[in-house]
Amino acid sequence: MLRFQTLFSAVLFCLTVSTAAADDGLYSAAQAARGEETYQQHCALCHGARLQGTPAAPLTGEAFRGRWEDGKHTLDDLYYIIRSLMPNNAPGSLSKAQYADVVAYILKVNNYPAGEAELVPKAAAMKAAVLQPH
Amino acid sequence: MDKARIWLVAVSTLLACNGHAAGPTQEELNQAGSSTEWLLPNHDYAGVRYVNLDQITPENAASLRPVCAFQGADLNRALNNPIVYGGAMYVTTLYSTIALDPATCKVKWRHEWKPKGKEANGSIKNRGVAIKDGKLVRGAQDGWMFALDAQTGKLLWEVKAANAEKYEALSINPLLFEDLVIIGPSGSEFGVKGWIGAFKLEDGSPVWRFNTVPDDGEPGAETWGEADSRLKGGGGIWTTPALDIANGHLYVAVGNPAPDMFANLRPGTNLYTNSIVVLDVRTGALLWHKQAVPHDTHDWDMPVTAPLFTASIGGEQHDVVTMAAKDGLMRLVDRNSREEFYSVAVATRTNADLEPTEEGVYTCPGLVGGVEWSVPAYSPKLDMMVVPAVDWCGVFKKEEEARFVAGQQFLGGSFTWDPVEKSSGWLTAVRATTGEELWKYHSSRPMLASVTATAGDMLFTGELTGDFLAMDARNGNVVYRYTGGGSIVGGVISYAVDGKQYVAVVSGMAAGFWLGMPGSMTMTVFALP
Fold first, then answer.
1. Of B62, B120, B123, B462, which sees the most CB atoms within 10 A?
2. In sequence order, what are the residues at sequence separation of 6 or more whose Cβ sits closer than 8 angstroms to the Cβ of residue B40?
3. What gap in Å lies between CA B58 and CA B67, rounded to an integer?
């Protein structure tokens, strides 16, 4: 099981040894479904239909946890890399909403909980959310 | 027979049975240019890639046939440069080091490296081993370097030579000279601050280090603007240096600066990125440098600092070095005066002098060159150099910001590739002493594999399509083609075993963005019937 922890709560933890964090779900199930469609069309060729990687990097499992869920990456970092570098043959060619949908799908596959609201590109919540295992 | 003579005979017999148990010696390595084995990644210290074998010729090459194949069971990039010495061929995959019989592909031993920690992200690969005094040395993606007994594969020593936490991966074939192992980390796009260093062959302990991106106070630091710009400034090492054994001058090819397309963070020429850096091999002291692409904004590394050769140019003998880069230019430079004799385009160049903008600039070469990791083959017999190159243009864009995200490419921009159908490759033959074009071979896909020239006027190379090519070096005609499946982007070598000439070809996966043919790492050996 994986979750977000906000920077805010991380600060609280450091300062007050407070408890854990928000785990509210930053994307909706409908958004993840749209993201899956976009992913299969633009990303699956390199990252695999099940995000397993080969020839490109895996987007799930141990490799994803090691690369992204180290407490040093925000959700906005993940969005920034996908938006600026992907798809590899045409970076930046999708809309910002499509990139956010793909991020939502990746979160879903990696067992992050869905919520009511959709993930909005560059929203404060994305910048505050730190990816880490729990 | 006295005891001493009995001992000598016994040792000689043992050496005869086991090849050269403790070799190659320094003297053997110094003479690699005339060897019919393959002792260094580019055949010899000078990186000439010319072998004095003439059994296979344009007249009989159509009779070539595969005689054996070894499958490495590895789906990582097949970029290995094999070594052949003492009756064994040494090949690598990302984690395996394998000794094969070079005439039958029979496995003698196989060693598996178990990573000791975090592996540097990004460009996952291994290019091969180096051999001297009975030791094989190679690097790994986790920053460790280790030595194996060449006869048995037994681990002799292991050291943490680079720091994978700082994204440093050891992928190149090291260079062994006297008691030194020369190696440096790749990873220019992944947050590396580059260096090349020497370690003791005996135990891997460090001897010297040269910063390809200078520290505070070092010469060249002033070419970067703010000090912070150097901390993840790139300058990785991803090809084996050439060495002039006459004077101990080491010719190091240094990679690109980072962030690749966002140069605002690094005003200046950004030494020593995209440069040839000439060092004293025994001390690491800088002797001179020459930068091919100052203040690069296109990821146009300078990976080629070979071959080194001496030839008559304008009626006088000159010691020269070849520089070729992802900017699509091949240059011939005097090693003494540093004068450039010529610079010839071996790939399409369009808008090459324009920096990327936020709107985008269509540019050739594209993000992948130009000339990639394979050095030109040099035939002294034909006064000819033959270099592979890539044509794959596209649109470079600069981002609004350059954000470093750990483990990800630090580009500060993007590249939109032309459709794959518009990508292609070239093999260009030029008169080595003048740069005059002699012939060109056009491939339907980028050309990346190494090229080997022989005394039989043959060239051996391969294509991303999976085709092995045997060509008439005099005119570029393909006289034998064999489609083996996986992409050919690594080593293609020729050598003799018991007096018979062979050609060995590495195939398998290329990096995903090349859109090559998939395949497990395979070594296929060819010979005449």
1. B462
2. B29, B32, B47, B83, B130, B173, B175, B240
3. 19
- For tokens 């130009």, what's the residue? B370
Contact A55 B511 (CB under 8 A): yes
- Indicate if the pLDDT at residue A4 is higher than 70: no
pLDDT digit string, tens, across residues A10-28: 333 322 222 223 346 889 9
Q: How far is CA B27 from the centre of its chain?
A: 23
B117 in contact with A, Cβ within 8 Å: no
The shortest CB-CB distance from B414 to any of A57, A72, A84 is to: A84
pLDDT at B461 over 80: yes
- Give the separation between CA B371 and CA B404, rounded to whole angstroms: 27
Q: Kindly state whether B28 is in contact with chain A, defined as any CB-CB distance less than 8 angstroms.
A: no
pLDDT (0 to 100) of residue A134: 59
In chain B, what are the helix, strand and coil shares in percent, each to the nearest 5?
Answer: 10, 40, 50
Cβ contacts (< 8 Å) between A84 and chain B: which residues?
A: 399, 411, 413-414
Partners of residue B509 in chain A, C-beta under 8 Å: 55
Cβ–Cβ < 8 Å for B237, B186 = yes
Residue type, B274: N
Q: Which residue of B has its CA nearest to A78?
A: B405
Nearest CB to A88: which of B118, B406, B513? B513
In angstroms, the separation between the Cα of residue B72 and the nearest Cα of chain A is: 17
Q: Tens digit of pLDDT for each residue in B2-20?
A: 444 544 444 444 444 444 5
What percentage of chain A exceeds 90 in pLDDT? 49
Tokens representing B148 are 């194996």
Chain A residue whose CA is closest to B418:
A89
**Rounded-to-integer distance, Cα B77 and Cα A69, Å:** 26
What's the predicted TM-score (pTM) here?
0.91
pLDDT for the residue B19: 47
User: ipTM of this model?
Assistant: 0.79
